[in-house]
User: What shape does this take?
Amino acid sequence: MQAEVAIIGAGPAGLAAAIQLKRYRIPATVYEREEAGGLLRNANLVENYPGFPDGIPGQAMARLISAQAGRAGVQITFEQVLELAYDNGEFHLRTPQHTRRSPIVIVASGTSPRALPGLEIPESLRPKFFYEVHPLSDVSGKRIAIIGAGDAAFDYALNLSKANEIIILNRGERSNCLPLLWERASAAPGIQYRPNSTVKTVREGLSSEFVLKCEDPGGITELAVDYLIAAIGRDPQTSFVSASIWKNCADLEMQGVLYFIGDVKNGMYRQTSIAVGEGVLAAMKIYQRFKETGL
Assistant: This one.
């Protein structure tokens, strides 16, 4: 039996790699700390993926990819990888439950949200403070503030504005989002955009809501909201990768036993189509390696 490939992350990149490996009859296990789908679960509408002429909501696309992986027989182990190390010619994956070994690893762990600096969230309000939007997908009739000015902030706003009142707080003058997102947000009656607005402090109101003390050119104002979202950027999720990996990373990649694919390595070029393509490509390279070496 062939050695098992370990895939860290069940987003589009990881699942695409797993599906393709299944086609080659190469055993693989996907490790996922939360639920399958990755950042697709946050996307309001995916419009640039071929095959969906009217676009498709991100959560719907995530469900389709997960269903396809399930039908292909992809095995997902819902355990967080706490450490990925390399020793004696093999990888060691440590989770809270087990330590497993694998000769080949695909890292498709995506990104983690950038923490909101300099702003203390009261303990009582933390259950209503988020860095992503999918936990609020069923919320309606609420007032929600989003701190940020990029694609994510505006996409989150469009997603939630169908059933809620949204206020985007930008500490700067200009937005950094796609012109298309700006146009749609500007036309959405449920979205209010406030430039040059900096949140100075957060406290709990009498009705357990957020009370944001905001500074803008007009002075200091207080804004009461039910939920608060921070969307100020994302960084590669590689905290679990040990020094033994980074020390030998270039050599391991050259050997064809270590692959970083998708958002974890693509910086600003985070697109589902790119992630899927890289997942398929990694699987094809692994198949070629198996053919040549038997490993």
Summary: The radius of gyration is 21 Å.
